[in-house]
Amino acid sequence: MTLSRFKPGDVLIVAILAVLLGWHWSLWPELASGSSARVLDALGRLAGVLGLGLMLLAGIGSVRLPGLDRWFGGLPRLWTLHRLMGFGGFILILLHVWSMAFSGVAQSLAVALATLFPPISDWAIWSGWLALVLTVLFLAPTFQFFGRLHYQRWKRLHLLSAPALAFALVHTLSLSRWWPLWLVLGLLAFAAIGWRKLLSPHLGRSDWTVAEVQTLVPGVVELVLDPVDRPLRYEAGQFVYLTPWDERLAAGCGEEHPYTLSSAPDDPQLRLGIKDLGDATHALQTLTPGSRVQIEGPYGDFYERHRPGTGQLWLGGGIGITPFVSGARALRADGREDIQLFYLALDSSRAYYLDELKSHAERCPAFRVEAHYFRQEGPMTLAFLKQHCPDFAQREVYLCGPPGMVNHLKPLLLSAGVPHSALHSEVFDFL
């Protein structure tokens, strides 16, 4: 995943922010007025405009509608933009408060205090303070200022974003002459949050039944799901949110978590490879066949092509092999797409999909599979890549696996001449 290549959604974000800043055109001449009080006042107001705009766009981006995420390069990339806009908006709001305070100090301390702390009856200013306090409460832990946050606690804490945005809009609408666009953005943000938190659990999910829980190796299973209503339409490499409702689970009942699909798009059943990596994934190893689960999605754009006509290089390790299993299962026997897959595993006992992948390679001559075992050969090297795929630097590269593997391979590939735009990976942190 990279933010270096612009997507249609990026252009839309920039256009909305440009309209907001342009709409407040009367503030721009103040920046050249020469008066420190007026300059700081204008700077503070423009920072507030841009900060609230970013916060509202972050709220709109939380809608998580299947298909919409592809405008932004997939949901992991949209989530990265969401975090950047949220954090950037927060910093600009702090700059707004700081600049407004010092614009008053430029006149006198009394003016500064009156600007920041007016009488209680001035509800417009105090609503701004309430918005800031709530924003600090839900953003500081979210950006891991106090260590890594538990997934479910993070989701509950994020509910504070709704009242924070509401108080921020009260503050802005009561003080700004340019209220129509703020009102539209505010309504869109609350519609997105309302869909995400209230409606999508009931209207955005489909019901499925657990047909099988196939143990691949100890600690790794593949869930096989039957549709209650109709099969899911998706592409290879996409992922879904799974919510199990098996009350016998030790953890995770009723909680949604993202998992990559390992099935082929033409398979009426869904298959998801799941590795024991925490309480919820550990519990899913013993999911009861016949129990009910819900699926939301699909999301992602893992196999997006930036260099059509070139060969592909797939590098998968751990449970990150699942999008490549889905891709291999979707290959046609007469397909001519030139694909080289490197299966990175600790040793042969952890290459749990290798036999099946080799059978797909026998069926599809343009698809080749090579295993790389860390215990025998150490970390992947350029020499190994050149030996088994001499033209790897000219291919479009897809990475999925443990953070250590991805963090090792990315700089290795870039140093060999693979351009950023040809490098694809996905990270599921706090999706």
Description of the molecule:
Helix 2 runs parallel beside helix 8 (179-203) and helix 5 packs antiparallel against helix 7. The protein has 3 domains: 8-203, Up-down Bundle (Four Helix Bundle (Hemerythrin (Met), subunit A)), CATH 1.20.120.1770; 206-299, Elongation Factor Tu (Ef-tu), domain 3 (Beta Barrel); 312-425, Rossmann fold (3-Layer(aba) Sandwich), CATH 3.40.50.80. It has helices at residues 8-23, 36-60, 75-105, 109-116, 123-142, 151-157, 161-175, 179-203, 279-284, 322-329, 354-363, 374-377, 382-388, 403-415; strands at 206-217, 220-227, 239-244, 257-260, 270-275, 292-299, 312-317, 339-345, 367-373, 396-400, 423-425. The chain starts with 7 loop residues before the first helix and ends in a 6-residue tail after the last strand. By secondary structure, it is α/β, with parallel strands linked by helices.
Written as H for each helix and E for each strand, in order along the chain, the element string is HHHHHHHHEEEEEHEEHEHEHHEHE
Q: What is the architecture of the largest domain at the second tier of CATH?
A: Up-down Bundle
Average pLDDT: 89
Q: Classify the beta-strand content into a percent band.
A: 15-25%
SS-derived structural category: alpha/beta
Task: Identify low-pLDDT runs.
Answer: none
Order of neighbouring strands in the sheet with most strands = 4-3-6-1-2-5
CATH class categorisation of the largest domain: Mainly Alpha
Largest sheet: 6 strands, antiparallel
Helix amount, in percent?
40-55%
Oligomer category:
single chain
